[in-house]
Request: fold
Amino acid sequence: MVREVEINPRLGDTSGDVPDLLVEAHTTSGQSLTVPGEVKCSWHTEVVTAIADQLCWRYLKSPRGSAGVYIAVYCGGNAWSDDDSCQAKSARHTPERLRKDLHQHAATLADCGITAQVCVLNASLEDGPAPAEP
Reply:
């Protein structure tokens, strides 16, 4: 099957508003489904609020649909470089707290007819051998 370049209009109202992920599926009958996704790391100042401010109000208010994916990547552990300023910013959260806060935001968005699926990935790195699983 040969794929051709597709030119698509941007999803947001501001130039440069492009989601981090854009999954597009096509059926054999020519129908398509487009799902935007946004990814933020735990050190980002808007990791908790971007699910609404960016994913919902920029990308899901378009005519392409009302469902999207929000991925928060938690970066913790002790393998940080001592001069990396992101460590302290990331330490403001835990994976559990991020998950809870984001699910609360997703529930509020659901009341507005928006479906935001939340995924929190724990990408923590530790120096030395990995701790044993309990």
Remarks:
- Strands lie at 21-26, 32-41, 67-74, 115-122.
- Helices lie at 50-59, 86-90, 95-110.
- The longest helix spans residues 95-110.
- The two ends are 48 Å apart (CA to CA).
